Amino acid sequence: MSGAQENALQIVASPEKAQQNGTSVNARAVCNVCKRLYRDPKILPCLHTFCSDCIAQLEPFSRCPSSSSSSPRDRAVRRGSRSEGSVAVTVLCPECDSEVDLPASGPAGLSTDHLALDEVFLETLVTDGPLPCDLCGEGSAESRCEICALNLCEFCCQAHRRQKRTISHSVQALHELKSRGRLCRPVLCSLHPGQELRLFCQPCDLPVCLECSATLHRDHGCCPTRDVILRHGDHIRELVSVHLRPRLERLEESLQKVNESQESLTSHVEEVAKEVRAFARGYASAVEAHCVSLLHRLEELHIQRRNQLHLQRAQLCQALLDVRGGVEFAERLLGCGSDAEILTAKAVTVQRLSTLSESSYDPQAAAGPDDGSSICFLPSEPAGDVSGYPVVGIIHGKTVDPSKCTVEGEGLLQCCVGQSGHFTLVCRDSGGDQLTRGGEHIVVSIAHKEKRSCTTVASVVDNNDGTYIVSYTPEEPGPYSLWVCVKTQHVKGSPFNLNIKRKLRRHTGTFHCCSFCSSGGSKEARCGCPGTMPGGFKGCGHGHKGHPGKPHWSCCGSTAERSECLPESVLNAVSARGHLRTVEL
Length: 585
Known about the structure:
Blueprint lengths: L2 H9 L3 H6 L20 E3 L5 E3 H5 L3 E6 L6 H9 L6 E6 L6 E3 L9 E2 L1 H12 L17 E3 L4 E3 L1 H9 L8 E3 H7 L18 E3 L4 E3 L1 H5 L8 E2 H56 L4 H52 L2 H6 L1 H12 L17 E12 L2 E9 L8 E3 L5 E3 L4 E6 L15 E7 L6 E2 L1 E5 L4 E6 L5 E9 L2 E2 L5 E6 L9 E2 L2 H4 L33 E2 L14 H5 L13
Parallel strand pairs: 16-24
Antiparallel strand pairs: 1-2, 1-6, 3-4, 4-5, 7-8, 7-9, 10-11, 10-12, 13-14, 15-17, 17-21, 18-19, 18-22, 20-21, 22-23, 22-24, 25-26
Helix pairs in contact: 1-5, 9-10, 9-12, 10-12
């Protein structure tokens, strides 16, 4: 920590002291663990910032031996912090409870949050107390050198401008800096104090100073930060705009639906309760007892649905919190950070944003929220006896039970290649009764048992009455495995064995008595049978040589009307007497 920061922290040591002086403290300059201004702020892998000392005091969640390989930054930090035999630890983030891994070098190996340091220095400028001069320590600071990051009194400011080494430095009045709302400071090298990080080592993926590039990174071909900031900044922008911004919107939309469903659930339950009370008022004590039992059942369903929504809401809130935190940090880094600041936090930011964008939890893939529409009151249904009196009216909360669902139809067992197969799925509740509504999540998978790469796409049509029509068109013959799942669970009998037969050859001719009759006496008319006629006719006629003696197909000579068309090789093997003879292929 620089001397300027230490002097500033002596003035505004805590938010409470600043509030006693009548000033409000910027929340971005305060650590959420110690509730004080940041002291050496470090960025955890989840993109939450805390003081280095606060991170070091976190209880380890797990420990594992550190790897022998490490980055140049970790090796440099380890020289002044821990030995080579240290172990990497996993801690819980105090902000989001995420499990985060600390480097083997401890909190010192984490990326420094220079944006937080800017907020701390800005907070020191807006306090009512006077700032001491960082050079002489006696006079009241009135100006600040942005290159040296020093607060200067009037005398030291004049001396600073007269020195040959600092004559070109930008020195501005403190009251002008206060009006800007942000203080830009140079990012200095942790290994070479006073050296600003103006270069970037691409092999090491680190911003470095001029002295680092001439020693530790001598053969790495370092380049100015302005030459690489556009590419790395665009990578972060792409992660935010292409992946996380749309996901953030989906999470917010899903959370809104859950909140609306919670309100709708309570409203719907209250409406059903009114119907129950209105029905029960016309009865004596037995009906009143029955009313109490109905309300008890309704409350059980209410609690059940409410707990389900509460769990879904908690998952959405956590996912939303993680994504929003990553997006806000990335946007603030890109919008407020300098080139060096962005490159300093680039690695941890990209890693966190990539993890969030690849999260397995997808609100669109999850089942829709249950708003209690399946809960209904059936006043005409018999409900048994209460104290010897027959009563009617039950609370019904039908939900689908995959083990009770049934599948029926010819297309469930067999089909032919190129033909459309169909079968019907009937969704039932735990009592075996058919549901009267649709909207269930149905998944149908048809896969070849011998050719794993061969699958058949199935379409599902919701009839909105508890039944679903499934259709498919296979392209390959053979044995298939047919999976039918409701809410990711197999229905009764699933998976089924489906046999796909090869495509039947359809007849291209006509089913006739002879070619003479069917063609109107044409001599050029031919027939698939071996029959011939005298007089130059090329086809068959009644009673002539080779006629089958019964109606047959003109394309292949088959005498069965409902049959498959015989291949051409079989036709060539038909003898003049209607028998098959062996031919050489």
